[in-house]
Design goal:
Layout (H helix, E strand, L loop, with lengths): L20 H12 L5 E5 L2 E4 H17 L7 E5 L4 H12 L3 E5 L5 H11 L3 E4 L9
Parallel strand pairs: 3-4, 3-5
Antiparallel strand pairs: 1-2
Helix pairs in contact: 1-2, 2-3
């Protein structure tokens, strides 16, 4: 296959050398939809793309303020919640490496994941934090 522009379809999107999934999911979406469009809906409420983007930017700034930077492995131990999406997107926004962990793992498995990933930090919820301690 050739990359000659003449052979590519008109709607072909040339990918940049580096892609940031957070910027693709949030920033690109906000270019095409209203910031009031719903990003998440759950039993307890909903969250618009505009609000999601704002939360992700605040969380990213918080991670940076706590020394989490590009290339830093960070354990993410959360249940299926909007906070998981915010944490994951914020970490990817700054180039950190989210190490996703099943919230049902016990202390021994958690220690293994942390050691082998070289994680220096963790993001979790109080209700499932104990094995990280």
């Amino acid at each position: 296959m050739t990359t000659d522009d003449a052979t590519l379809p008109d709607d072909y999107r040339v990918m940049p050398n580096q892609v940031n999934i957070c910027r693709e999911v949030i920033d690109k979406t906000l270019e095409n939809v209203s910031s009031n469009s719903l990003a998440f809906v759950w039993d307890g409420g909903s969250l618009s793309y505009g609000d999601l983007g704002a939360r992700v930017k605040r969380a990213a700034a918080g991670f940076l303020a706590h020394g989490i930077e590009q290339g830093t492995p960070v354990v993410v131990r959360m249940s299926n919640c909007v906070e998981f999406a915010v944490a994951f997107l914020a970490l990817t926004r700054i180039g950190a490496l989210p190490v996703l962990q099943n919230s049902l793992l016990g202390e021994e498995e958690v220690a293994y994941v942390i050691e082998h990933a070289g994680a220096r930090a963790a993001v979790t919820l109080d209700a499932i934090a104990e094995p990280l301690r």
